[in-house]
Amino acid sequence: MEIVAVPAFTDNYIWLVHDRESGETAVVDPGDAAPVLAEASRRGWTIGQVWNTHWHPDHTGGNVAIKQANGARVSGPAAENIPASDVALKEGDEVRLGRHVGRVMEVPGHTSGHIALVFDEDGVAFVGDTLFAMGCGRLFEGSPEQMYRSLQRLAALPGDTRLYCAHEYTLANARFAAHAEPENRAIADRLAEVAALRDAGQITLPTTVAQERETNPFVRSTNVEEFARRRAAKDSFGS
Ligand code: ZN
Ligand code: FE
Question: Is CATH 3.60.15.10 the classification given to domain 2-235?
Answer without folding.
Answer: yes
